[in-house]
Design goal:
Elements (H helix, E strand, L loop, with lengths): L18 H13 L3 H22 L2 H7 L8 H39 L1 H7 L4 H39 L12 H30 L2 H29 L2 H6 L4 H13 L6 H4 L15 H25 L5
Length: 316
């Protein structure tokens, strides 16, 4: 994996650096990382393979035929779930890619010692960090927009081909548009929280390897806490630990589609409507709670990054 950007990157220039110049330089360096095109392609492959499976197999017509006629609206919810599964894959894999990319974009400056050169040119530390974050957010927005548009179109074509036409889409629930938009919102929130977590981890350790290590184990550790808190709830016979699982970042991100689409009105039937990967909290709150939890973590990560970057001497 290539970590050093091209030496021909635009110079910030003599005198006091301007923020547009810093942002342009950071975008130039990020887009020329060899990890960019490789990761960008790998993110969308699982969703493409899923759409191709729907196109080439008999899974869709067989599943529709197995739905009892008495289950009103089940066909529509099944078709919606197919869209949700392909979009969920984009959400998951884009998060992994952005996590690694954020560590590379920030960590390479410490790894290569270029941060001292940048700061010596008069670049403000907060502006430098803001330029990094805006670069990552811009890349995330562009990639996610393209991914979602392409995969949604492929899934639509695959389902239409598998069912012999577009008539099946007339059975979609009235909330289909809203549900899809909530998946987009959950994907964007997932990207924002992941980027800031990775940036904070890298700045805390001032090391690319430290950032990668902490960032990669953060969400698995968060998931394990759900099991630990569940055990505590049984041992101490207290609902406190069950409620606490609703304040963990990883599980809250996993539950965002449920929280935004269904909220705290979960039932066995409604749970089948929403495609969710990963561990979710043992208690379900509404969408407002889930969004506030994610935004709080994101703001805390940003604050940690700014405070440590401004207060600590750079000796790399």
């Amino acid at each position: 994996m290539h970590l050093t950007p091209a030496l021909s990157a635009p110079a910030i220039g003599p005198g006091k650096a301007t923020f547009p110049g810093i942002l342009r330089s950071e975008l130039y360096k990020a887009l020329r990382l060899r990890a960019m095109p490789i990761g960008a392609v790998l993110v969308i492959i699982p969703s493409i393979l899923t759409a191709l499976f729907l196109l080439a197999s008999n899974y869709v017509p067989t599943s529709l035929a197995a739905i009892p006629p008495t289950q009103k609206g089940a066909e529509g919810y099944f078709i919606e779930s197919l869209f949700e599964h392909t979009l969920e894959l984009i959400r998951d894999f884009s998060g992994i890619f952005l996590l690694v990319l954020a560590v590379l974009v920030v960590g390479q400056e410490f790894q290569n010692g270029t941060i001292r050169v940048i700061l010596a040119r008069g670049v403000d530390r907060t502006q430098w960090l803001l330029a990094k974050v805006l670069t990552l957010c811009g890349i995330a927005l562009g990639m996610i927009a393209v991914y979602l548009a392409v995969i949604f179109a492929l899934t639509y074509v695959a389902i239409a081909h598998a069912t012999g036409g577009t008539a099946i889409f007339q059975h979609l629930p009235q909330t289909f548009g809203y549900d899809m938009w909530m998946y987009v919102v959950s994907t964007l929130l997932n990207a924002a929280a992941t980027i800031m977590m990775a940036v904070a981890a890298t700045i805390i350790g001032r090391s690319l390897m430290f950032g990668i290590g902490v960032a990669l184990i953060f969400f698995p550790a968060d998931t394990i806490l759900v099991t630990i808190f569940g055990a505590f709830s049984h041992v101490f016979n207290s609902d406190f630990w069950t409620s606490a699982t609703g304040y963990l970042l990883g599980p809250s991100l996993n539950a965002l589609p449920i929280s935004l689409i269904i909220g705290n009105h979960m039932t066995p039937d409604s749970a089948l409507r929403v495609a969710v990967d990963g561990t979710v909290p043992d208690v379900f709150y509404d969408g407002t709670h889930a969004v506030l939890v994610v935004l709080t973590y994101t703001v805390v990560f940003a604050a940690i990054s700014i405070i440590l970057l401004r207060r600590r001497d750079v000796q790399e």
